[in-house]
């Protein structure tokens, strides 16, 4: 399946990546060649095969409802790009 | 032309767990920003989720309370979207295999009839953080304390047909989750939040109209107002030749209107897929039966029992059973005084009025069930009249004096000594010859005047029945 | 020159031939002398190493040591190490000082191992050549014109050049085994779920697995004894305790049933690699094993399925890199969307962006069934093929890679050709099985350099001990694993 430039723009937006106009064509080509590889899967019939999400059958383990974390705000915010009054700052969120 | 409103509700209930859904961070409400956001909640690279046992337990409890199918194998999925209050860039939720499947609950309509509303599903998911928009010079501040808190999203079938029904459904849901103790259901604090899918269609039509999803409804009152507003907006739009578009709208309580959100945004594509950091949650029969055994008596069962056991009206029984605390309070009072009907009147009447006035929950009642029971007991044994009881009730507020002490110290005890009452009656008759003449001439209404005068003379304490009988016989002459 | 294995160093420390501090200083000196050429380390934690070495010596003096106490180690820069730069080979995390320790790091610390630093890697472990690192390509110690393989190329080069005694790696589609083969060392990917992933920066959560990169199967067993075992912080980590991997190393191979996948001997396999494999099979036969052909009929689709599943999971795993809480943020964003897009476009390299887009596409509305579900179905078929094969054989042996190490820059223009080189390793990840690559021969490059060849031994699920035993027995009777490049 070959991708169009418009597909690349749509995917890039979903993934919040910036692809400029010159790049888009090249990216579309590269991704198309990967999709061609992937499309080899379509050569076999898997109608009655259940999808396998994990390599072995195991079930979720449960955790006791206990508070085990302590407040480390100052420490954890030392590596943050921008904070103020304990809040992470981002460009204005418009709803 | 007549229109019908079709409503489905998506209710997010914050589960009252101590720690978050997938991490050991605290969930206390109102902590300083980001003091309850640990490495997983902040989506630090390399961190992984482990499911909180209690959240699952609470979800199953809810499922059983609404007679729902319990997913024997539920699967968590990632719902992908970018938002600053969503640290991982995906929300862990359940799409295809939720923990709670099809169920139902019953609501009471305004005319007293019952209606069953289908519950499509209830799934466990994590909450997002909060964005704060004020005071940051063009920036928003992100607080992730709430991020990762356990939510149960309860989705109804589109079977609600008016804003009133939607409110009744929401109140019933609220009552059930409070009964189960799985959430405080506090809408103002956001521990219960409601999105409404609203559409309109011509009465009698079978197809649904295009729906709009209204977000951000944070009180019972606003649910009603938002739906009424939105339905009217859609009707006006269609009647003017327009078309409803499927979109998300935000309810603005200040202006009482809904407005379009993210209208410019390309349609969301959440790219759900199974969360590979978690394994399927498998629940067996033994677990389900153990949870079932823990279920308390639920509002409907309690209401029915109140009607049959205490001969209460459906209405009173419904009011009392709407909250577990209220029902327990009522039953305590009734047991102590031995008169359920009188107890119901007091709890739904004077006590409820008092609570409403001071904006208190029954748990915070200034009058305990023990004291109210004692008060009603004194009405029953004729120590005081019902009217005096109201005076005593007032006097009980703001102190812990016993009912008997109050009656005693304020001299409120009912006069039942027939000699004393007779003396009162004689005095009143003697003092009002004109009215006696009127009465005897056939003006029956004057009788009330004599009762009033005699009561006044007794400072309200005369036994009303005795007073009545004596007055009748003496006035006859 | 002969290699210093962990087992030998441990014995030397025990005999008091040198202290951990001396050993550590020696390794630090080697790093100072040679790292500029190989670029194997992103961060050298010299101060920490010296402190840990002194502590290890003190511990040994008190008699509280284990086999790895005082042994110098390098961690792939994918493992979070508290208060140490943890970059994952990316500009996105070039400033990221991790606020917590990965379980693997914690366990090596508890064992008294000495951390020399963090090794270079393909960005977010996406690559087979170590050329996608923001910190530059790593060079193969056998021939610096060639790649060390990837994504754990820094760890592999560091072990091969003896810039550490042992190293950690991670393997999503071959990222431990392929660089081990290219660098002539031993690299082991245990079964999925055997080692905790807590603190290991995720690429593809259902495939990623940590493992040892070292000089012998015995060293791998020593490392596994520290790394493996349950962890309450990783839901996908199995709860059964890990066995003592040293205990069964010397079990006999008499009667061992070896399967060789006929698909692995088909077109695409280099002649020198095939010759080395055949020679190795002879060695096993001489030890009492029998060899038969097994069928993995769907293996040819493993690369296709992998390039859906891994990018799909990665596309979500890498969404957290948004410039809000840590890591890179673009300069003066105009608005929120601009911040997201520029942060991510400037912070990620082109291979990472490509895979994010492939994954996003595979999960998007209308394509989910055709790509994601289809790939998970193929995944089941591949696992079933292995299950069936393991009814007849105890271990599957084949090449690790079709060819020896290629030249830096040689395959940059064509990602798909590079992806296809992982044809023997990827299926093992999809099925979650344990696989080890051990040196089994060498080829001569046109420039006269000797290039190592690796073979892969794949065991049934959780049969780590058996795989290590078989590899160890091979190494008891061959010396490919002890050959060391001239540094």
Can you lay out the helices and strands and say which pair or pack?
The complex is a heterotrimer of chains A (95), B (477) and C (487).
Chain A: H1 5-14, H2 21-38, E1 62-63, H3 73-77, E2 83-84, E3 87-91
Chain B: E1 3-14, E2 51-52, H1 53-65, E3 73-74, E4 77-80, E5 90-93, E6 103-108, E7 114-126, E8 130-132, E9 139-143, E10 150-156, H2 163-180, E11 192-202, E12 212-217, H3 220-239, E13 247-252, E14 257-260, E15 273-274, E16 281-282, H4 285-294, H5 299-310, H6 314-321, H7 324-337, H8 340-358, H9 369-380, H10 386-396, H11 403-409, H12 418-431, H13 433-440, H14 446-457, H15 464-476
Parallel strand pairs in B: 12-13
Antiparallel strand pairs in B: 1-10, 1-11, 3-16, 4-5, 4-15, 6-7, 7-10, 8-9, 11-12, 13-14
Helix pairs in contact in B: 1-4, 2-3, 5-6, 6-8, 7-8, 7-9, 9-10, 12-14, 12-15, 13-14, 14-15
Chain C: H1 6-15, H2 20-38, E1 41-44, H3 46-61, E2 72-76, H4 103-111, E3 114-119, H5 153-160, E4 166-171, H6 177-183, E5 186-189, E6 209-214, H7 217-227, E7 257-261, H8 271-286, E8 290-294, H9 302-317, H10 336-347, H11 350-363, H12 368-389, E9 395-399, H13 415-420, H14 426-431, E10 435-444, E11 450-459, H15 464-476
Parallel strand pairs in C: 2-3, 2-4, 7-8, 7-9
Antiparallel strand pairs in C: 1-3, 4-6, 5-6, 5-10, 9-11, 10-11
Q: Explain this structure to me?
A:
The complex is a heterotrimer of chains A (95), B (477) and C (487). Chain A is flat. In chain A, helix 1 (5-14) crosses helix 2. Chain A has a domain at 5-43: Histone, subunit A. In chain A, a hairpin with a 2-residue loop joins strand 2 (83-84) and strand 3. In chain A, 35% of the residues lie in helices and 9% in strands. Chain A has 95 residues and is an alpha+beta fold. Chain B is α+β, with helices and mostly antiparallel strands and 477 residues long. Chain B folds into three domains: 3-290, no CATH class; 297-409, no CATH class; 418-476, Arc Repressor Mutant, subunit A (Orthogonal Bundle). In chain B, the strands form four sheets. In chain B, strands 6-7-10-1-11-12-13-14 form an eight-stranded mixed sheet. In chain B, helix 7 packs across helix 8. With 487 residues, chain C is of the alpha/beta class. Chain C is built from 15 helices and eleven strands. Chain C has an eleven-stranded mixed sheet, sandwiched between helices. In chain C, helix 9 packs across helix 11. The radius of gyration of chain C is 21 Å and the shape is globular. Chain C starts with 5 loop residues before the first helix and ends in an 11-residue tail after the last helix. Chains in contact: A-B, A-C, B-C. Strand 3 of chain A pairs antiparallel with strand 9 of chain B.
